[in-house]
Description:
The complex is a heterodimer. By secondary structure, chain A is mainly alpha-helical.
Amino acid sequence: MQSAQTARTTPLQLALAWSFAGIPLLAGVIQTLLNAMKLFQ
Amino acid sequence: MTTTLDASGLPSRSLLSFLDREHTVARPGYSRWMVPPAALCVHLCIGQAYAFSVFNLPMTKLIGITQSAPGDWKLTELGWIFSIAMVFLGLSAAVFGRWVEEGGPRRAMFTAGIAWASAFLISALGVHLHNLWIIYFGYGVIGGCALGIGYISPVSTLMKWFPDRPGMATGMAIMGFGGGALIASPFSVWLMSKFASMTDVGVFGAFITLGCVYFLFMMVGSAIVRVPAPGWKPEGYVPPATATKLMTKNDVFVYQAIKTPQFWLIWIVLFCNTTAGIGVLGQASAMSQEMFPGHITAVAAAGLVGLMSLFNMGGRFSWASLSDFIGRKNTYFVYMVLGFALYVTVPYAGASGNVVLFVLCFLIIVSMYGGGFSTVPAYLRDMFGTRYVGAIHGILLTAWSMAGIAGPVLINYIREYNVTHGVPKAQAYNTTMYIMAGLLVVGFLANLCVRAVDKRHHMKDDDKASLEPARA
């Protein structure tokens, strides 16, 4: 079992976790938006 | 990772004990905002399934390279890969739901990661040996199981971390499933272009790379996920003192839940919403070009499909978040009523040549299709409690598998029937739109019949004690 000591999450850990998942997603969204622009051309 | 020692000082559990639920309990100070990216790491990977079609055309030219040669696979044969995966998604979510719930999210995410990476590696072997049965097994069966287990793995954990906003929490994860295709589609095309040569279309190398990249992502997700300690509550959150009419404070055992009318009513609601959505999602390109010949070109139709995938993803987050404020039942009423109005408007938009109205209808429809998936876990939680919600959700996903067959069949066969009976192509989809609107009426009535679960289905204290491994 884990001890009951605290393990406070740092803002850096949060930023890293969100970037790890968020950057690829953002790249996908931008790429899709660029493709979607063809609808209005 | 921590190691438990027994009396002799040796590790008391297997090497994989770090996957156990008790080793994933968060220590004080752990931020609950670490859990959504963990869930996204899994859902963004398995969401690749929606982009699998980018491999279909290259896989028809594995022998001929520049064009299909005798012995190359046909598109119809390749179409089965996705269908098998979807069937196994529903089956595995239903069969392994209780195992996922009791073992905790890390074990489930880890297993899904191994299976998803294996699916690509086995498929790469199938491409190398040019044996389609190996791909049916690899991507269809093993990949389908990874989809089912991975899809439900973070759902109940997120709702336990966000009791104040369960819709938003599951919306974030399930949004990832919609977003996965947005990443996988261009990434796969890019990979194939890098691995392509005079003797190779690049599918083999792309499969190997995707397997490795997805394995890494899903392992990171399984490493950072945690379950809240028993009795944990968000700071400042005061749970409602009494259960509201449609929000229970009790738990219902998974196999007891499927004996309730509420489960099957919600199953019908999800089936109707998904069938209607899948029907237009899969055919949007062809439908838009046939309904607006000369106005919507093939290139513009591809743009529409891209825009629809963005609304599909965005709807998963925004509608589920809205359901935290207006309630789950009301949210489904919106899907059914607004959906009905939009489906009957599509033929009018086609007849009047109003492209803007047509596009608007489709975008809102597809956002509600996505919203239907992301709102349903919180609906189940309201009805059956949090304890077995992941397992119950798993069984409910059979509605998705069924809709995956019914939606395309309805739209394709009715269109075909109309065209062969002399209906102009521009109007060939009208009957389908009215049938989809009718399906939403059925969904509306089913949703209307949803009432609170009868007390006799609630778990008693002695039931809870005998099912201890599934503690919160």
